[in-house]
């Protein structure tokens, strides 16, 4: 009986299942404790004009996500990528304390980016986890070492901040992170990359436990910068490793993807495309790319009448549908097709966003006309979605 038990528990698939359960339970049960401490100590985010909430809300859900993910992963001793995991968790600790301090004191953007660069360098240079090839997208194949390192560090910082930027409505950053980490985790399981699979599913389970409270009306909590930095960092780890292994490792033909970068892009399409679009529009308008406004896709959906839940579910659906479609075409991509596919998807995203902006503007004008006002005032939303301070 003992031998049977040891054989069952020794199965990596079973171990990952127990990690999922532990991560979910740790996050689920720790959030009420964190909420109570926040409420007793007054550690709340008070609503302002642009806020999506109307009452003071605790913002330290990221602590529970951190604890759940860490405990789920550390339940077992996977040795396949131990050298990499030491660097990953060192970087994770840097971002955890950075996010914690930012949630408490609101750090300057440059200080946050500096710490993100340090955490990224630790992983990219320290463990040689980097994107080494574009797989022929835009005619680019193998990258020189220095360019590979710099590009991967840029990807880390960009994606970490992208998850922070989409954390503007309930469930969006956590839900997209859950979908992406589970998607990468599933591929790692199929290819017996147990350490990465456990990391992916531990994160996904922790985010599932967090979402139960993030969507709640009575026990709501936000992940805060602590959570969004952690989620962005770990999802980037999974994405880069997924791309890296498809370039360097020999897997069965059915699981080796020449379209690996595009599959990763499809899972992360919402934070990537949204950030590119918003930054681009702000720069074209002569504004700082970090200036707050209501240009994000989730804001456009909410301003067009969708609830937070409906808006997040819409973007979940877009992510899943695009990922499945991209996966189904994995064997048909040539270098030219990969480039065309990326451009086409981004163009469709821009068109959808522009349609929502126009629709929002028309709805706003209609309301003004119904109220007997023929011309929008400066205090109202402009076509780009920003709110004038005049």
From TrEMBL:
<feature type="binding site">
    <location>
        <position position="225"/>
    </location>
    <ligand>
        <name>Mg(2+)</name>
    </ligand>
</feature>
<feature type="binding site">
    <location>
        <position position="164"/>
    </location>
    <ligand>
        <name>Mg(2+)</name>
    </ligand>
</feature>
<dbReference type="Pfam" id="PF00953">
    <property type="entry name" value="Glycos_transf_4"/>
</dbReference>
<keyword id="KW-1003">Cell membrane</keyword>
<dbReference type="GO" id="GO:0046872">
    <property type="term" value="F:metal ion binding"/>
</dbReference>
<dbReference type="GO" id="GO:0016780">
    <property type="term" value="F:phosphotransferase activity, for other substituted phosphate groups"/>
</dbReference>
<feature type="transmembrane region" description="Helical">
    <location>
        <begin position="194"/>
        <end position="215"/>
    </location>
</feature>
<protein>
    <submittedName>
        <fullName>Undecaprenyl/decaprenyl-phosphate alpha-N-acetylglucosaminyl 1-phosphate transferase</fullName>
    </submittedName>
</protein>
<feature type="transmembrane region" description="Helical">
    <location>
        <begin position="88"/>
        <end position="105"/>
    </location>
</feature>
<feature type="transmembrane region" description="Helical">
    <location>
        <begin position="171"/>
        <end position="188"/>
    </location>
</feature>
<keyword id="KW-0479">Metal-binding</keyword>
<feature type="region of interest" description="Disordered">
    <location>
        <begin position="368"/>
        <end position="390"/>
    </location>
</feature>
<feature type="transmembrane region" description="Helical">
    <location>
        <begin position="263"/>
        <end position="284"/>
    </location>
</feature>
<dbReference type="InterPro" id="IPR018480">
    <property type="entry name" value="PNAcMuramoyl-5peptid_Trfase_CS"/>
</dbReference>
<feature type="transmembrane region" description="Helical">
    <location>
        <begin position="222"/>
        <end position="243"/>
    </location>
</feature>
<dbReference type="GO" id="GO:0044038">
    <property type="term" value="P:cell wall macromolecule biosynthetic process"/>
</dbReference>
<dbReference type="InterPro" id="IPR000715">
    <property type="entry name" value="Glycosyl_transferase_4"/>
</dbReference>
<feature type="transmembrane region" description="Helical">
    <location>
        <begin position="145"/>
        <end position="164"/>
    </location>
</feature>
<keyword id="KW-0472">Membrane</keyword>
<feature type="transmembrane region" description="Helical">
    <location>
        <begin position="332"/>
        <end position="352"/>
    </location>
</feature>
<keyword id="KW-0808">Transferase</keyword>
<dbReference type="GO" id="GO:0005886">
    <property type="term" value="C:plasma membrane"/>
</dbReference>
<feature type="transmembrane region" description="Helical">
    <location>
        <begin position="305"/>
        <end position="326"/>
    </location>
</feature>
<feature type="transmembrane region" description="Helical">
    <location>
        <begin position="59"/>
        <end position="76"/>
    </location>
</feature>
<keyword id="KW-1133">Transmembrane helix</keyword>
<dbReference type="GO" id="GO:0071555">
    <property type="term" value="P:cell wall organization"/>
</dbReference>
<keyword id="KW-0812">Transmembrane</keyword>
<feature type="transmembrane region" description="Helical">
    <location>
        <begin position="16"/>
        <end position="38"/>
    </location>
</feature>
<keyword id="KW-0460">Magnesium</keyword>
<dbReference type="GO" id="GO:0009103">
    <property type="term" value="P:lipopolysaccharide biosynthetic process"/>
</dbReference>
<feature type="transmembrane region" description="Helical">
    <location>
        <begin position="117"/>
        <end position="139"/>
    </location>
</feature>
């Amino acid at each position: 009986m003992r031998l049977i038990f040891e054989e069952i528990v020794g199965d990596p698939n079973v171990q990952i299942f127990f990690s999922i359960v532990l991560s979910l339970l740790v996050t689920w049960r720790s959030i009420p404790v964190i909420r109570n401490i926040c409420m007793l100590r007054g550690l709340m985010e008070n609503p302002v004009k642009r806020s999506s909430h109307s009452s003071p809300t605790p913002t330290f859900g990221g602590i529970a996500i951190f604890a759940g993910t860490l405990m789920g992963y550390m339940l077992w001793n996977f040795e396949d990528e131990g050298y990499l995991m030491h660097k990953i968790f060192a970087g994770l600790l840097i971002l955890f304390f950075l996010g914690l301090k930012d949630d408490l004191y609101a750090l300057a953007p440059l200080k946050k980016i500096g710490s993100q660069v340090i955490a990224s360098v630790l992983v990219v240079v320290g463990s040689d986890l980097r994107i080494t090839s574009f797989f022929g997208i835009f005619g680019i194949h193998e990258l020189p070492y220095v360019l590979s390192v710099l590009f991967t560090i840029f990807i880390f910082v960009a994606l970490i901040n992208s998850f922070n930027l989409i954390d503007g409505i309930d469930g969006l950053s956590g839900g997209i992170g859950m979908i992406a980490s589970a998607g990468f985790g599933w591929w790692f399981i199929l290819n017996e990359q147990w350490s990465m699979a456990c990391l992916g599913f531990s994160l996904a389970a922790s985010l599932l436990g967090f979402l139960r409270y993030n969507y709640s009306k009575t026990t709501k909590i936000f992940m805060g910068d602590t959570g969004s930095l952690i989620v962005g960092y770990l999802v980037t780890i999974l994405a880069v490793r997924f791309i890296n292994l498809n370039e360097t490792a020999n897997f069965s033909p059915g699981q080796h993807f020449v379209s690996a970068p595009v599959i990763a892009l499809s899972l992360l399409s919402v934070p990537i495309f949204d950030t590119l679009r918003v930054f681009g529009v702000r720069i074209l308008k002569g504004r700082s790319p970090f200036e707050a406004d209501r240009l994000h896709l989730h804001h456009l959906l909410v301003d067009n009448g969708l609830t937070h839940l409906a808006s997040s579910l819409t973007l979940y659906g877009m992510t899943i549908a695009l990922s499945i479609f991209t996966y189904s075409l994995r064997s048909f991509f040539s270098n030219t097709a990969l480039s065309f596919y990326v451009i086409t998807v981004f163009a469709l995203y821009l068109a959808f966003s522009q349609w929502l902006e126009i629709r929002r503007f028309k709805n706003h004008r209609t309301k003004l006309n119904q109220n007997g006002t023929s011309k929008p005032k400066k205090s109202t939303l402009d076509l780009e979605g920003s709110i004038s301070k005049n």
